[in-house]
């Protein structure tokens, strides 16, 4: 099995990626398992920029095949915000993490609450500097309150158009089938199997 480092310390993200790639010849590990405690500043202006920074930096530090992902929530009524700033935008406890979005959306009617999750995955091979980029987008809408108990990121406030459920209401398998990350991972899986074994 070839080692595949996921350039993240986020257990939820690593769990999703590991589950998605469970039937591949890759041993998926996170930064904690690799004992990498240094942090990379995500200073890119795009999801692709941030994913490239993480994949290449961690890949070179660990000298291994690395997958990095950056994603965010783009809300139509907010001109695409928070976008690449989703993480700091919704930082806080689970009780108030979404309050800023709810406050900004309080007067937005149902038909104008459209949004999308956008994911970019970069696969980087430290052995030969090969880079591949995969994207995924999932359309949906912003709810008026948090719904569901699977609290990973903005899952409880985003209702997927494909299922009519929030990410907070879906199992990991259900979500991987329709999510932005699932769509990007499907492309990345194909690339990994074709070019990185």
Blueprint (SSEs and pairs):
Elements: E1 2-6, H1 11-20, E2 26-30, H2 47-62, E3 65-75, H3 86-89, H4 99-105, E4 114-125, E5 130-142, E6 158-160, H5 172-178, H6 180-195
Parallel strand pairs: 1-2, 1-3
Antiparallel strand pairs: 3-4, 4-5, 5-6
Helix pairs in contact: 5-6
Characterise this structure.
With 197 residues, this protein is α/β, with parallel strands linked by helices. The chain has one domain (2-195): Maf protein (Alpha-Beta Complex). It is built from 6 helices and 6 strands. It has helices spanning 11-20, 47-62, 86-89, 99-105, 172-178, 180-195, and strands at residues 2-6, 26-30, 65-75, 114-125, 130-142, 158-160. It has a 6-stranded mixed β-sheet with strand order 2-1-3-4-5-6. The protein is globular, with a radius of gyration of 17 Å. The model has no long low-confidence stretch (mean pLDDT 92).
Give the overall average pLDDT. 92
- At CATH level 3, the topology is Maf protein
Number of strands: 6
pLDDT < 50 runs, ≥5 residues: none
In spatial order, strands of the major sheet run 2-1-3-4-5-6
Shape: globular
CATH arch. level architecture: Alpha-Beta Complex
What is the compact description of this entry?
About 30% of the residues lie in helices and about 25% in strands.
List keywords for this structure.
single chain, 197 residues, alpha/beta, Maf protein, 6-stranded mixed sheet, 6 helices, 30% helix, 25% strand
């Amino acid at each position: 099995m070839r080692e595949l480092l996921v350039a993240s310390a986020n257990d939820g993200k690593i769990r999703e990626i590991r589950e998605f790639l469970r039937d591949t010849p890759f041993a998926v590990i996170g930064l904690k398992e690799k004992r990498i405690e240094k942090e990379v500043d995500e200073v890119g202006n795009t999801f692709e920029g941030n994913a490239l920074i993480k994949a290449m930096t961690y890949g070179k530090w660990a000298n291994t095949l690395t997958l990095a992902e950056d994603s965010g929530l783009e809300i139509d009524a907010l001109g695409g915000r928070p976008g690449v700033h989703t993480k700091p935008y919704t930082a806080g406890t689970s009780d108030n993490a979404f309050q800023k979005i709810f406050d900004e959306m309080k007067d937005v009617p149902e038909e104008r609450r459209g949004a999308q999750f956008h994911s970019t995955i970069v696969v980087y091979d430290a052995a030969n500097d090969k880079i591949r980029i995969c994207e995924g987008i999932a359309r949906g809408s912003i709810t008026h309150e948090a719904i569901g108990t699977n609290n990973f990121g903005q899952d409880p406030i985003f209702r997927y158009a494909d299922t009519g459920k929030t990410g907070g209401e879906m199992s990991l398998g259900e979500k991987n089938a329709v999510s932005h990350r699932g769509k990007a991972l499907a492309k990345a899986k194909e690339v990994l199997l074709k070019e990185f074994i």
